[in-house]
Amino acid sequence: MTACSFRATILSIRQLTRDIREMTLEMRAPSELSFQPGQSIAVTVPDQNSGSSLLRYYSLVSPPHSSTQLILLLNSHDRGKGSTFLLENEIGAELQISGPHGSFILQDDLDRELLFVGTGTGIAPLWSMIATLFAESSSQPITLFWGLRNESDRYYLQELDLWKSHHKNFSYVLTLSQPRSAWNGSTGRVTDLLQTYTTAAHVAAYVCGNRGMVKEVTDLLHEKGASAVYWERHDEKS
Ligand SMILES: Cc1cc2nc3c(=O)[nH]c(=O)nc-3n(C[C@H](O)[C@H](O)[C@H](O)COP(=O)(O)OP(=O)(O)OC[C@H]3O[C@@H](n4cnc5c(N)ncnc54)[C@H](O)[C@@H]3O)c2cc1C
Ligand SMILES: NC(=O)c1ccc[n+]([C@@H]2O[C@H](COP(=O)([O-])OP(=O)(O)OC[C@H]3O[C@@H](n4cnc5c(N)ncnc54)[C@H](OP(=O)(O)O)[C@@H]3O)[C@@H](O)[C@H]2O)c1
To answer: Do residue 121 and residue 224 come from a single domain?
Structure first.
């Protein structure tokens, strides 16, 4: 799929936590985007200082079968140029976008268990991939490890429980690295969860999050014998 330029308008914005917003874009011209789960789009961000523009990449959370509306997750914590620009726009505002970008997509590992490991908004491409596997009635065992900091950083909880109750092949662990005192769930980083695997030779793993986490997790999986480990290559992106 070759990337093309398109226009989209902001249809809705949902505040999921203090820092995380889910933004739904409606495609304008063209009216649909063909993409594969795991791919991203690049938003053109006007740079007031230089008068030129910057590109900021956002993974698509929504699966390809809903191709007229695109869902993104935005972390507004640090308020850099891209996130500030996106969040200052109101419902109905038009954005210049290109896509789809990236080769972090589902591979054919039909005889393996699928392991998805994400931290923070790194859940975005993994979400699209897992939703696509469900839409295709995949019977492969699917495990999701998702790392967040504390209870108030959690979102998509109802969606995760729905997935778990509807898909017997799906399980997930949401682990908190810095929980407050009353937390009864998993505590620690996603790397701690991986220590429970004596071998990872039987899994195909998809990893997304900050660069340090991606390196640590992929190294650990390789040490445990995994050969099918996939992550986003950032070489050609800003
Ligand atoms: C393929 C891909 C997919 C992605 N998907 C997502 C996604 O789904 N959701 C998401 O939220 N992000 C995603 N990102 C990250 C996203 O593209 C942006 O990098 C992110 O939103 C930050 O961009 P920004 O312009 O807001 O911050 P930037 O302006 O790039 O700043 C980044 C950080 O540096 C700090 N900073 C900037 N300038 C200075 C300075 N002069 N001095 C000190 N500190 C400074 C900022 O405060 C901020 O913390 C993705 C990235 C890639 C490559
Ligand atoms: N397609 C893509 O490439 C793509 C898509 C979406 C997002 N992203 C990237 O994903 C990142 C998400 O950032 P975020 O701020 O939302 O969350 P984050 O800072 O990545 O995640 C927070 C959680 O990750 C843990 N963590 C930090 N470093 C770790 C490591 N080395 N190993 C294991 N766990 C680690 C933190 O633990 P502590 O509390 O102990 O620090 C915390 O629990 C961003 O860098 C974004 O650019 C990439």
So the answer is: yes
Q: Whose CA is nearest to atom 37 of ligand 2?
A: 177
Q: Is the CB of 80 under 6 A from ligand 1?
A: yes
Chain centroid, CA 212 distance in Å = 16
In angstroms, what is the span from residue 26 Cα to ligand 2's centroid?
A: 28
Q: CATH code at 72?
A: 2.40.30.10
Does 106 fall in a domain?
A: no
Same domain, 94 and 118: no
Domain that holds residue 84: 4-101
Ligand 1, residue 101: give the atom nearest the CA.
Answer: 1
Regarding the beta carbon of 60 and ligand 1, being less than 6 Å apart is answered no
Q: Please work out whether the CB of residue 78 comes within 6 Å of at least one atom of ligand 1.
A: yes
Per-residue pLDDT reduced to its tens digit, 57-116 = 999 999 998 889 999 999 998 889 999 999 999 999 999 999 999 999 999 998 999 999
- The count of domains in the chain is 2
- CATH code of 198's domain: 3.40.50.80
Q: What is the dihedral of CA 90, 50, 41, 156, to 10 degrees?
A: -50
Determine if the pTM surpasses 0.90. yes
Which two three-digit tokens encode residue 18?
């203090």
Q: Is the CB of 234 under 6 A from ligand 1?
A: yes
CA distances, 34 to each of 69, 78, 179 (Å): 11, 31, 39
108 domain-assigned: no
Token pair 């800003």 is found at 238
